[in-house]
Amino acid sequence: MALATKKQVGDNSNIDIFLRIRPVSKPSPNLLFDPIENRVDFGVPRNLSSGYINNQREHYEFRFNGVLTPDAKQDEVFERVARGVAIGALEGFNGTVFAYGQTGSGKTFTVTGGPERYVDRGIIPRSISLIFSEVAKRSDYTYTVHISYLEIYNEVGYDLLDPNREVQMLEDLPRVHIMEDDESNIHMRNLSVHRANNEEEALNLLFLGDTNRTISETPMNMASSRSHCVFTIYVEARKAGEEVVRRSKLNLVDLAGSERVSKTNIDGTILREAKYINLSLHYLEQVIIALQERSMGQNRPHVPYRNSMMTTVLRDSLGGNCRTVMIANITSQQEQLDESISTCRFAQRVAMVSNLVVANEEVDPSLVIKRLKQEIRELKDEIRMLQGGEEEQLHKLKVQVQQRDNEINILVSMLKKREDGKSANPLAGSRPAVANAPASSGQPALGPAGGAAGQAGPSSSAAARSGGEASTSAPAAGRVSGEAADLLDVAVLADRSKAFELFRKSYRKNEVIEENKQLLKAKYTEAKQLGAQVNESRQRINELKALIEQRRIQRSMAGLGGSGADGQSGELDPEEERAKALIEKEKASYKDDFAQLRRLKQEIENLQQLLEQSRTKLQRDFEQWLGLMLRQQAAGSAVTAGSLTSQAGSPRASMQPQRPYRSMSEVQPLQEDVPPPATGLRAVTEQFNRAALTARRQNSQPVMASHTQATPISTDPEDVFLRRPSTQFLSAT
Ligand SMILES: Nc1ncnc2c1ncn2[C@@H]1O[C@H](COP(=O)(O)OP(=O)(O)OP(=O)(O)O)[C@@H](O)[C@H]1O
Q1: Angle CA(225)–CA(229)–CA(235) in degrees, nearest 5?
Q2: Helices 681-698 & 574-639, crossing angle to 10 degrees?
Q3: What is the pLDDT of residue 105?
Q4: Of 345, 353, 580, 636, which is least surrounded by CB within 10 A?
Q5: How far apart are the CA of 386 and the centre of ligand 1, in A?
Q6: 18 forms bridges with which residues in the sheet?
Q7: How far is the CA of 106 from the centre of ligand 1 (A)?
Q8: What is the pLDDT confidence band of residue 250, given thresholds at 50, 70 and 90?
Q9: How far is the CA of 287 from the centre of ligand 1 (A)?
Q10: Contact 716/728 with Cβ under 8 angstroms?
Q11: 493 or 718, which is more confident?
């Protein structure tokens, strides 16, 4: 399937052949073996040779990968023949060990083992033991072991491990059929595969299969098997957290006897068995010959695997993806020399078969599906989140943009102010800029302020080395950096009044506010002067009026009469006339001043309104900014010791004031908060508003209309700025 991948880790490897010589009581002197050279020699006298053996030759020599002498024990056989193949199965390599030889040569003893002694255990139980002991050691993988046991008798497959029936006869076992899929993979239908969780369970399965194994007694071997048996261990290995799975098969094969039918001297049923046995071995030989010729460069496109069930089952083991080892079992009996020579000759052909060995690693679709489902779940969650929170996200982004803009404006304003040299920052003067430089320079996301801070770093550091005179000697950008950092200082944020002062000083519109305040102050000064003039005029007029009254009393007492106000005197009092003229003059002056004062009042009211609007805006911006700073301070505190430390690369950096700019979102103005009273601006505005309201309520009249008593107006400039004096000179008089 498309998901499956195979990784080639090995080159072509020929099938290893081992010769095992069964011990007999009377070994033939014509069989010589050299376990060092792994060589065996058959000396066949001309007069004794018969049958198909070439009687023209007296000497036959065969070489093997290993010769297991009659005294070789089962453990040695296992170690030399099967251990490597079994270990390979744990690592994803298919493996096959098959025993070939005439009846009674020791195939079953080699593969399964002797029935009585523990030391006689054969390759199957030893492989089981090795695999489970290795599985226990290899904790990085999770292994799963399954087992099947197939018998092929007369070209029919039987499941030796069918647990559902009591076996009396071979026909009681379920028949196994071979099926081939579109990709030419072989499948055994009806062959049960059993999970073996441990060595004991696996050995029990072996025992069950052996019990069901067909035994057919022949005159030559009372307990010989007339069938092929394939014991298969399936190993599956998964590494934790990986989707790749290794799957391998280890076939341990005990073939039927390879003797010639002509020598069995049997009849009936036994003869039919011998015919089938030899037929399947004949096909095995045909497969081996084809593979041998192919390996020798001859054109053999077709290998007749399908001619028998046994060769079909062992297809991968013969010329396919498998580490295969053949054990050629012979006996050293003189009477069996021709069969032994025949077995050795067959082994020589097998040795020329080359297999392409690769580890079977496959991507496990079930694990991929599991992962993909998890990804889908996560994506759906994300989509849900995005859909549900789209508007909210948009709003947050807008708020973020606005707040970023505000921050940038603040810092640009600070830069401009510094460059113009107009502003003095009280805190900048009291704190060397270098104190905040590391924290600022470590915040690249700060935008314009970050850039300024970054530029400030070296000069600030230089200032620190030169004795902390950064506030006076550092360039403007450096001082701005320090100030910018002050804005971000946690301690400053904690002090609301201080935070407001810093914010206000950096506020871009503060210049306009200040300008308006100065203008207002000038207007107040002008109004105060006018008020003073009005008061003086009023004072003088009152004095002149008093003078006239006094003159009239004096003239009446003197009996001068005249053309005074009472009309009794025909003669005018020049003093009275002069006083009257002065009064007129003062009245004119008073009226002009008063008119001017009214205009000033209007201007002052306009300015106050502007300032009130600015104050409201300032307050709103401050609250928004402070809320943001406090939120980010809280959010940033969690990462200060971690990410900021690692970013800065030194523990010292983590001690610096952290950058509160974490997220600009979700900052809501703290409506219940009031701006700190220390600014003065708020006080002025509130006083002005109260006074204006009072003035409107009193519907104030011109000075001369209702009051005769003069009310002094404060001459303190600050008082003029801080208090709302308009009623004193506009209406109170
Ligand atoms: N190396 C050995 N050491 C001791 N006894 C052995 C050895 N090999 C075989 N035998 C004994 O020889 C007899 C025949 O061996 P075995 O049954 O294994 O032959 P076989 O090749 O399997 O015969 P068949 O093809 O008929 O099944 C058995 O009794 C077995 O125990």
Answers
A1: 150
A2: 140
A3: 94
A4: 345
A5: 75
A6: 66, 327
A7: 3
A8: very high
A9: 26
A10: no
A11: 493
Whole-angstrom CA distances from 40 to 59, 80, 330, 489, 566 are 11, 18, 11, 93, 172
Q: Model confidence over 74-115: pLDDT tens digits?
A: 999 999 999 999 999 999 999 999 999 998 899 999 999 987
The predicted model gives 367-385 an average pLDDT of 74
When pLDDT is cut at 50, 70 and 90, the band that residue 267 belongs to is low
Domains of the chain: 12-363 (3.40.850.10), 396-487 (no CATH), 510-730 (no CATH)
How crowded is residue 637: how many other Cβ atoms within 10 Å of its Cβ? 13
Ligand 1 mean position, distance from CA 17 (Å): 19
The answer to whether the beta carbons of residues 396 and 40 sit under 8 Å apart is no
- Beta carbon of 329 within 6 Å of any ligand 1 atom: yes
70 C-alpha vs ligand 1 centroid, how far in Å?
12
Which residues are known binding-site members for ATP?
Answer: 101-108
Cβ neighbour number for residue 288 with a 10 Å cutoff: 24
| Minimal-distance CA residue to ligand 1 atom 15 | 106
Pocket-testing residue among 109, 112, 327, 333, ligand 1, by greatest number of atoms within 8 A of Cβ = 109
CB of 264 within 6 A of ligand 1: the answer is no
Displacement of CA 660 from its chain's centroid (Å): 26
* pLDDT value, residue 605: 81
Distance 112 CA to ligand 1 centre (A): 10
Global confidence as pTM: 0.53
What confidence tier does 191 reach under pLDDT thresholds 50, 70, 90?
very high
How does residue 169 score in pLDDT terms, banded at 50, 70 and 90?
A: low
Q: Which atom of ligand 1 is nearest to the CA of 329?
A: 21
Between 184 and 230, the higher pLDDT residue:
230
Higher pLDDT among residues 110 and 301, named by residue: 110
Residue 105 in contact with ligand 1 by CB distance below 6 A: yes
- Asked whether 471 lines ligand 1 (CB < 6 A), one says no
Asked whether 104 lines ligand 1 (CB < 6 A), one says: yes
Q: Beta-carbon neighbour count of residue 321 at 10 Å?
A: 18
pLDDT at 299 over 50: yes
Q: How high is the pLDDT of residue 121?
A: 94
- How far apart (Å, rounded) are the C-alpha atoms in residues 248 and 236? 7
Residue with tokens 């300008």: 515
109 CB within 6 A, ligand 1: yes
How many whole angstroms separate alpha carbon 494 and alpha carbon 190? 80
Contacts of 113 (CB under 8 A, 6+ apart): 74, 120, 121, 122, 123, 124, 125
Span 364-389, average pLDDT: 72
CA distance 279 to 394: 82
Establish whether residue 38 lines the binding site of ligand 1, counting it when its CB lies within 6 angstroms of any ligand atom: no
User: How do residues 604-657 score in pLDDT, each as one tens digit?
Assistant: 888 888 888 878 888 888 888 888 878 777 776 544 433 333 333 333 333 333
Ligand 1 within 6 A of 332 CB? no
Which of 307-316, 472-481, 580-589 tops mean pLDDT? 307-316
Burial 212-235 (b: 16+ CB within 10 A, else e): bbbeeebebbeebbbbbbbbbbbb
Gap from CA of 331 to ligand 1 centroid (Å): 10
* DSSP reduced 3-state for 542: helix
Beta strands in 255-380 (DSSP E): 323-331, 354-356, 361-363
Where do runs of H (alpha helix) occur along 559-648? 574-639, 645-648
| Average pLDDT value for residue range 524-543 | 82
333 ligand 1 Cβ < 6 A:
no
Nearest CA to ligand 1 atom 1: 22
Contacts of residue 79, defined as CB under 8 A and 6 or more positions apart, other chains included, come to none
Question: Mean pLDDT, the chain, as a whole number?
Answer: 70
- ipTM confidence score: 0.98
